[in-house]
Amino acid sequence: MMLVRLGFTHLLCALILLVAGPVTLRAQYQNSEGKRVVAIHFDPAEQPLEPKDLLAILPLKIDQPLKMSVVRDSIDRLFATGRYADIQVDAQPQDDGVIVTFLTKNGWFIGGVAVTHGVADPPNPGQLENATRLELGEPYTEAKLQEAIASQERLLQSNGLYQSHVRPVFDYDNAHQQVNIRFEVDNGPRARFSPPVLQGDLKMAPSRIVSATKFRQWFFDRWILGAWKPVTQLRVRQGLDGVRTLYQRENRLESKVALESMKYDAESNRAVPTFRIDPGPRIQVNAVGAKLSQRTLRRYIPIFEERAVDQDLLVEGKRILLIDDVMTTGATAASCAQALKRAGARKVALLTVARVDRRMDSRRRAAAESEVGGMS
User: Fold this and answer.
1) Alpha helices, DSSP H only, in 113-220?
2) Residue 354 forms beta bridges with which residues?
3) How many CB atoms lie within 10 A of CB 33?
4) How far is it, in rounded angstroms, from Cα 339 to Cα 337?
5) CB 230 within 8 A of CB 276
6) Same domain (yes/no): 9, 96
7) pLDDT tens for each residue of 349-362
8) Are 187 and 153 in contact, with CB atoms under 8 Å apart?
9) Contact between residue 102 and residue 23 where contact means Cβ atoms under 8 Å apart
10) Considering only CA atoms, which of 74, 122, 115 is closest in space to residue 230?
11) Which of 41, 74, 106 finishes a domain?
12) What is the pLDDT of residues 199-226, one digit of tens each?
């Protein structure tokens, strides 16, 4: 006769057992219920807890009658230690009593995580290890392992390694209930870019956009065309930035460029990026009341750097240099700065040619008064 209790990885089954279990188990235990427990065993004999500690934990005791409720409580106590993933209980008759055996499966915890692969970066082993998101001391589950493998494969594919394979190798440390995992990675050949697909109202020649991605290798000052470059995350990001910069130079500060998809062709080992482009309107920025070049405007007005146009960024660009020939008390400069800020200036700086040292005036005044006093 067997009583089965599953760990947290089989929660649904455990819930069904709680609902359907009482009637079924009573029928199974009808020949042993109430009989004296003559011995309590554990299988395997080597347990994560000391034998004396196990017997102290269990409500089930030798020389006491076997009760289903006590067996359930014993299973709950064992699971509460956090050291078990699965527990089954077997009761076998022995003369006028019964022998109870707890068949246990240890719970495992994540130990060391390492990656071995023999192809040049990217990604490097450290990036692949971080992609697993397996933390030291966490409970090990099959679901976590499969998610770790899937995350590594996504990272490899984003770097053009679509034909890669990840194989986990386990090293079990029974003494500490830890499982050390080494991921062996076979990268395979890295895919190369194919001509990108451009979607949207481009407002310029597609060849200019493709050139801005720098996905294609040119030789001899672009007179001879070379191969498309290998795919990496960095090159994709730089390609997007290159297209955004191209539109910014055309004064399309609100343009949006996004990677819609990256489709892989296994036969040619090529990846086809699809860009979705919204060029936005042309925006002309001029300075009123001063002659400033477009280069100067691009340097000091943050809308160019942020690639966005809103009131906050425009106000942030209102930085004013106030020039005064001589500053005496500073009251005039302060009043001017307050007036400029009320008018919308974000920052006001003061440049003065000379400043009156009021401490010197005090010393001279004291010396003069002293001289006058001496004369009287």
Assistant:
1) 125-132, 142-158, 206-213
2) 326
3) 17
4) 5
5) no
6) yes
7) 776 767 766 555 55
8) no
9) no
10) 122
11) 106
12) 999 999 999 999 999 999 866 544 455 6
Read off the CATH number of the domain in which 72 is found.
3.10.20.310
Per-residue buried b or exposed e for 132-169, using 16+ beta carbons within 10 Å of the residue's own CB: bebeeeeebbeebbeebbebbbebbbbbbbbbbebebe
Check whether residue 99 and residue 69 sit in a common domain: yes
19-48 confidence digits (pLDDT tens): 333 333 444 455 788 899 999 999 998 888
The β-bridge relationship of strands 319-327 and 165-173 is unpaired
Residue ranges making up the domain that contains 16:
2-106
The residue written with tokens 């956009």 in the block is 209
User: Before 281, cis peptide (omega within 30)?
Assistant: no
Residues 268 and 208 both lie in one domain: yes
Which of 140, 166, 186 marks a domain boundary? 186
Q: What's the rounded Cα separation, in Å, for the pair 326 and 353?
A: 6
Phi, psi of 369 (to 5 degrees): -65, -35
Domains: count for the chain: 5
Q: Cα-flanking dihedrals φ and ψ of residue 233, to 5°?
A: -60, -40
Structural contact between residues 5 and 71, judged by C-beta atoms closer than 8 angstroms: no
Could you tell me if residue 307 is left (phi over 0), alpha (psi between -120 and 50 degrees) or otherwise beta? left
